[in-house]
Amino acid sequence: MPGDPILVAESLEKVFRVGGALFGRRFNAVSDVSLAVAPGETLSIVGESGSGKTTLARMLVGLDRPDAGIIRFHGRPSAGKSDESNKSEKNGATAFGHTRSRTQRRAIQMVFQDPYASLNPRRTILDIVAEPLDVHGLARGLARRQRVEELLGLVGLGAAVTGRFPHEFSGGQRQRIGIARALAAEPSVLVCDEPVSALDMSVQAQVVNLLIDLQRKLGLAIVFIAHDLAVVRAMSHRVMVMYMGKVVETGTVAEVLDRPRHPYTQALRASVLDLDPEIARAPRRLVVSGEPPNPVDPPAGCSFHPRCPMATDICRQAVPALREGTGDFAVACVNASLKSD
Amino acid sequence: MQEAALSVDRLTVRFRTLRGEVKAVTDVSLSLPRGGVLAVVGESGSGKSVTARAIMGLVTSDNATVSAEGLSLAGRNLLTMTPEERQTLRGSAISLVFQDALSALNPVLTVGSQLAEPFRIHQGLSRRDARDRAVDLLRRVRIPSAERRINDYPHQFSGGMRQRLLIAVGIALNPEVLIADEPTTALDVTVQAQILDLLDELRRDLDMAILLITHDLGVVARLAEDVAVMYAGRIVETAPAERLFARPAHPYTSALFASAPRISAAAALKPIGGSPPDLVAPPQGCAFHPRCSRRSALCVAQRPPLMPTGAGLAVACHHPRNTEDGGRIDAG
After folding, report:
1. Three-class SS of residue A200?
2. CB-based contact A257 B191, cutoff 8 Å
3. Cβ <8 Å between A291 and B276
4. What is the DSSP letter of A256?
5. Residue A321 clears pLDDT 90, i.e. is over it
6. A141: Cβ–Cβ under 8 A, 6 or more apart, which residues?
7. What phi and psi, each to the nearest 5 degrees, are found at residue A42?
8. Coil, helix or strand for B222?
9. Helices (DSSP H) in chain A: which residue ranges?
10. In chain B, which residues have pLDDT < 70?
11. How far apart are the first and last CA of chain B?
12. In Å, how far is A228's CA from the nearest CA of chain B?
């Protein structure tokens, strides 16, 4: 079992502005999201477009600064809106850079979704993978090359590829290069933003298995951002489901995927197409209509209520709190049972 | 015997490029029964989308060569038609729903004028009549408040609603064949389920055949009656959907199923090693042999032809699995 959490986020919030200063509006991309992930553990964050999962990932690695809440790494604050560290609003990005120490930035690395856009086409694989080594001053000269070759071996690419350029590689190979680059910094946490969704299905499994294998070897804590529940099932220990910036349900894979309690999780689960035609064609138990509402103008109360088949008056009025169940789960729905069956 | 809605015989598409000739599609034969759903499944570079575009007559670039021994749409021979004659069939007898709904719709025209266009061009209806038909169409694809939304522009619709608009354009003139190219790939899962339900319902109501182009095995399981699996520009296996999922014959098909994550069980994934082949210089013999667990010397030396193995079943493999006469082919 995983031990103490290495990365903890408490009540994170991120507000974006759209439009100008005068007529512009604000929307909460992420509101009141807390999570914890331990070494050797994979936490998957699941949601559809606009759920806030990518914004959350960016805050965890330090690419975006939370407007409220705190991120702790090894128990130490890593980023958050605190008075002393954030005197100048305009200077947000820099101010944030200072709040997160170099060690912390090194320890939390990201694997990006698009293996085509995330590798510089004009640099060799050697220089791409070595970038974290250069930035953090970890290795130079021969040691640098040896470390890169070792990393490429770790992700299943030969040392012979160091002199080549990204365009010479397939999508799956590029994703391996992106993973090798993230590992160069010797991170203890890997945040993967949809790392397999752009890949062909025969190659997806290679990358999923590689991540599982690396986690075992290196004891990595992985935060896995995904929309495909079948991939989530294959690789995670815990799952957190987001809808319109909020956590609607969280718990172990078994609790969330086999006994989903939130109507939205149930709908997501029911929408996954089984690979057995007989099951895929059977009438679905729970069908939700419509699509997520405009985040700039969210509905009052529970943000899922306009699509929820079980919505009652209270759902239209009050935002449901995330309540702990008697098993290893929590759910933000007033109608959900908190008993484990 | 009833005539097929669409039949394709030995379709071949080549592209000349600086790197050499790309063998995008080779000897693809398909038969789509009236009112049926045939899925063409494959990964990127398998030739499935080029096949769809060639059938529509949309592969027209100067560096492309399209040839076929037969191509007929509900008994009409498309190969002997002039480009103008084929143009009139597009939309009325066969239409295409694209993957990317935002770029397939004109951003500066209201959806009403885009939906009315086929009625005005193909049927010469007046503006008012065409508009009424457009409102009916919006209702048919279940877009709420159709009367009001007809005056909106594409950007005012959500992703799922835009996909419904494209489907509306596709079915406007009751075509015999609707080609749906990755119709749900860009959509969220809850919305994907709604769109697949809609396609299934429409094809029953309109008795329309669907040629479904997809990489998503779940979409195939949900919608397809028959399946053709493509690899490196060729069909490697055809079978009815239930049969294919239960007993895949080609090692590529079965490896694909084994590599797919499943929602119902947390089994370890079994990836296919290597990468899809380069279509400028595909491997000798069977194009799948470098990645195949069942390969023999024969597979490297000789490309296996697509051989019928039963009713609606065919496989291009020297060592197929799960076939009644697999042993005989194996021995040969």
Report:
1. coil
2. no
3. no
4. I
5. yes
6. none
7. -110, 125
8. helix
9. 53-61, 92-99, 102-107, 125-135, 141-154, 171-184, 201-218, 229-235, 253, 263-271, 277-281, 313-317
10. 1-2, 324-332
11. 33
12. 8
Could you tell me which CATH class the domain A7-81+187-331 is placed in? Answer: alpha beta
B19 touches A: beta carbon within 8 Å: no
Band (pLDDT 50/70/90 cuts) for residue A317 is very high
User: Which candidate, B181, B179, B161, B182, places its Cα nearest to that of B170?
Assistant: B179
What is the model's pLDDT at position A74?
82
- Dihedrals phi, psi of B281, to nearest 5 degrees: -130, 75
Confidence at residue A90, expressed as pLDDT on a 0 to 100 scale: 36
Could you tell me if B193 lies within 8 Å of chain A, comparing CB atoms? yes
How many C-beta neighbours within 10 Å does residue A341 have? 7
Any idea where the domains of chain A sit in the sequence?
7-81+187-331
Q: What is the pLDDT of residue A116?
A: 84
Residue pointed to by tokens 């999962």: A53
DSSP SS3 for B3: coil
What contacts B20, CB < 8 A, 6 or more positions away? B280, B281
CB contact under 8 A, A49 and B188: yes
Sign of CA dihedral B88, B94, B95, B99: negative
Checking if the pLDDT of A340 tops 50, the result is yes
Give residue for tokens 């010479």: A168
State both tokens at B98: 């694209």
Which DSSP letter does residue B155 get? Answer: G
Cα–Cα dist A80/B235, whole Å: 55
How much of chain B is in helix, strand and coil states, percent to nearest 5? 35, 25, 40
pLDDT of A19 over the 90 cut: no
| Nearest to B57, CA basis, from B100, B1, B95 | B95
Q: What is the mean pLDDT of residues A208-224?
A: 96
Nearest to A75 by CA among A38, A45, A109: A38
Name the residue type at position A173.
Q
Of the two residues A90 and A114, the one the predictor is more confident about is A114
What single DSSP character describes residue B286? S
Q: Which two tokens mark A88?
A: 């100048």
Q: What residues in A contact B260, CB-CB < 8 Å?
A: 201, 205, 230, 275
Q: What is the C-alpha to C-alpha distance for residues B162 and A127, in angstroms, rounded to an integer?
A: 43
- For A159, other C-beta atoms within 10 Å of its C-beta total 14
Interface of A with B (CB under 8 A): 48-49, 170-173, 200-206, 208-209, 227-231, 233-234, 253, 257, 267-281, 284, 287-289, 291-292
Interface mutation vs chain B, best among A256, A273, A308, most B CBs within 10 Å: A273
- Parallel, antiparallel or unpaired: strands A42-46 and A238-243: parallel
Tell me the average pLDDT across A247-262. Answer: 95
Q: Radius of gyration (Cα) for chain B, nearest Å?
A: 21
Any A CB within 8 A of B207 CB: no
